[in-house]
Every structure is written in structure tokens, then in C-alpha cells.
Amino acid sequence: MVNCWHCGTEVIWGGDHDLEEEEEDYCMSTNLSCPKCNSFYIVYLPKDKEKNNDSSRSNNKTSK
Q1: pLDDT tens-place string over residues 17-34
Q2: Spatial contact of 32 and 43, defined as CB atoms under 8 Å apart
């Protein structure tokens, strides 16, 4: 899990937002919040990162 940058408490996942049509460089944003100090984070997933993850997953599949 992810801990708060400021106080070290585990943050709460607030949700994801699809940015495919709105944003050129990012495909998704995730919002996180800290229940202790009320810090708020928005994390952006780059579109290139998503493509790399998809190809890594397909390369990791093994046939039986």
C-alpha cells in the first residue's frame, strides 16, 4: 500500500478517472487521501506506461 508523504499513514484510494479522451499524455488519474493529516494526492498514469504494462503482461504468459 501507499503511505502519506507527510505523516506516513496509509492513504485511502478515492477512485480512478479515465483521461483517454481528455488528456494527450495520460490515460488515467487516481486520487488518494490521508485520513490523518488530510493530504490529497492525484497520481497520473502516462499513456506510454500503460502500453508497456500490456506488453509485459503478454510476454509473461506461459503456455502449457
Answers
A1: 999 888 889 999 999 999
A2: yes
Cα dihedral 51→55→57→60 (10° resolution): -160
What is the spatial distance between Cα 29 and Cα 15, in angstroms, rounded to a whole number? 8
Torsion, Cα 36 42 48 54, to 10 degrees, reads 50
- The label of the residue with cell 506461459 reads 62
Looking at the chain, the whole-number percentage of residues with pLDDT higher than 70 is 75
Strand partners, 17: 29
Measuring CA to CA, which residue among 15, 59, 10 is closest to residue 36? 10
Distance, in Å, from the CA atom of 9 to the CA atom of 35, rounded to the nearest integer, reads: 8
